[in-house]
Amino acid sequence: MTVRAVGYFRPGDSWLHHRHPVTKVLALGWLLLAAFLMPPLWLPALVGLLAIVSWTSGLLGQLVGSLRIPALLFASILIVNAFFFPGAREILIPLGPVGLSLEGVVFGLISAGRILVVFMASIVFLYTTLADDLLEALIAKGASHRLAFVILSAVQLVPRLQVRAGAILDAQQARGLRVTGSLMTRARAVIPLVGPIVLGSLIDVRERTFALEARAFGARHERTAYRVVADPPRDRWLRIGLLLATAALLALALGGFLP
Amino acid sequence: MTLTIDELRVRYPGRREPALSGISLEVEPGKIAAVVGRTGAGKSTLCLAACGFVPRVVRAAVSGRVDLAGMEVTTAPLAQLAGRVGIVFSSPALQLSSSKPTVREELAFGLENLGVAREEMDGRIERALDRLGISHLAEREPLALSGGEQQRVAIASILVMGTGVLVLDEPTAQLDPQGTSDVAAVLRELAADGRSVLVAEHAPEVLAEAANCLVLDAGRQVALDRPAFALRSTILRPIGLEPPTLVTLAEAADIPANGTFDEKEIARGLGVLRGRRPVEEESPAEKTKELAFLREAAPLGIEIRDLRHSYAGAVEALRGVSLRIEPGEVVAIVGQNGSGKTTLAKHLNGLLRPDSGMVAVGGNDISGRLVSDIARDVGFVFQNPDDQLFNSRVELEVGFGPRNLRLEPKLIERLVEGALGMVGLTGEGSTNPYDLGFSLRKLVALASVVAMEPPVLVLDEPTTGQDGPGTRRVGGIVDAWGTTGRTVIAISHDMEFVARHFRRVIVMRAGEMVLDAPPECVFAYENSALLASTGLVAPPAARIAARLGLTTMPADASSLLSLLAASRAAGGSSPEADRH
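Output (structure tokens, whole complex):
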């Protein structure tokens, strides 16, 4: 497996690809807040919105495909809450000491829905935003080098960890470790991965620091740019709109108007 | 800009011994200073301190001065150092931003950080790419390139920043011979431009360019002189290093040490030695490593038929390779960076699967077998040990493979002990592999595969990052592995290592095999043009032998000298000395 600088980025020419990275960061921020602050009945609307956005950018198929990753998580959240909700009163189907409760099902659906929105929004963002464009855009908008680097690292974290995990899996298989087969075999294969990945990410931080220092990153406040990240005029209006929407959402939540 | 290092002492936290104790060195504009020494002698520390990485990025207690045109480097902030001094590391992972989609933008990154005007960038990028011979890679994704190609990009990425002082820490470790000569030529040009260059190196091509050569041992200066003096056997042998082959030959020919690495002159000087008994060789006898701890195994051969492989969205890496390796053969695969060597090797244990064609081990097609199952037959040692090591203790790492094979605990213990002894790491069992340096981590990786007793051992660049003794140790293991009747297949850029330890050499170029013959034939004068077309050159002893008109190809200095002694005295200088 080779390391990809582009991470999850899917090159494309859709309207979403052409939005300025900072516009997309603001939209992502609003969606994450909305998932947790808005009344749960809005969750289907948010999921629908994200589905339309990804469909119009030609990414719906890939987005649906990627849902198999958190599918197990959704299922476990639903089942655990449905059967083991503490202090549940409306038991639908009693099963000995536990039972399928109405409160549990509702709570499980809400929790899974929120995580679904967070996951979809993040994936759509990563699919359409080149990490490097984000870095350049943030610096161009006046973000400090350190902040820009932290955000870049965060965006690249998961793909880099995946690459590292892939390399270690290769090394382990090359030394006789079975990683396919029964569920038990797979589970056993995961455990020896955890330590090295944590260790690997520490090494990764050191490598990043060396590379950036050697290339004089952060040496000067006035940087020039080789590639200009497009910032169409209507993105400006979009950003103002998103900032207002975020402010409104926070005001409503803090004012106690949202449940 | 003159770089002056004065009484520099460096001690890393938690270490009792200093990494450098009282080193002084001056690098003047237009001059190249080289640093030589065994692994751990302090070469990297000196490089890091010369550009301010120690102590700004890597914490250490530092005393003494590093002066760059009146500025104290050890305390200067990045803003003052940037644009004045640049450093190239031996591993591209430490150099590349890893966020850029193309090589061109990777090079632009440093210019952006220096605030270079946009109009200037393209010209500077083109020149840097051209100097390293990688203009054709400009639009490729840096992290999808081969290791050697990435290292060229890494060097270009620092070159493009145009600093007055350039520091390079073993820049050619991952490069093919052509790449090494290219780097030597680039450094010569930079010095001619008036830059000051400090380079830690093993490669004689680069050392030959130096005005001054600092020899370090355990953080102390052993010698500081012109290369021909500093690299003499009387200086290097006591600290456990072998002089470069050309220096050994020059000494044998009794050429006055006036700074020559000139092959023509050395050949002339050696010509008069024909028929004379050579001075008794002092070179340490190669110890055959004890491999008695390995159990008997049935030898296995390998067959590859019309193998093709492409990486997604990249060029075709293998374009129809057919090959038969008999059980017990010891085979080297050579070729320039990016010629498909690693891709080929990774097919042998199923890490990569053919797009078309077939790979058989021991007569059986491996397409249906899991990598974990093939591992019983084919042991694969990765080029980068950090892609391979993942345990917190050396003994766990080395025992990982045998445990997967479900061997008896007693036997596992014996194998771990034997494998660690073989690589010289007895007693390091409870050390964390990442507390060992790169070259020792590579030996741990090798031991971890050897402990599985595979009938076929595949080594990807086993000698990179090893100093002379380390390379000899790896060579001894290859020899011993062969004598147990097992098969060895190794990828290498070190032609002398190949000529010494392998009996069959496969030359690759652009995804195809272009030559498959014993080393005597591959490195014969008749094939030098073909070798050059794939970025290779014969080892120095063979080149000198060709100049002397010898028909047998010697692998190293000592075999050339015995050949000369055996050949009939031709009298006077040989006409072939002027052949090139």
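Chain A has nine helices and two strands.
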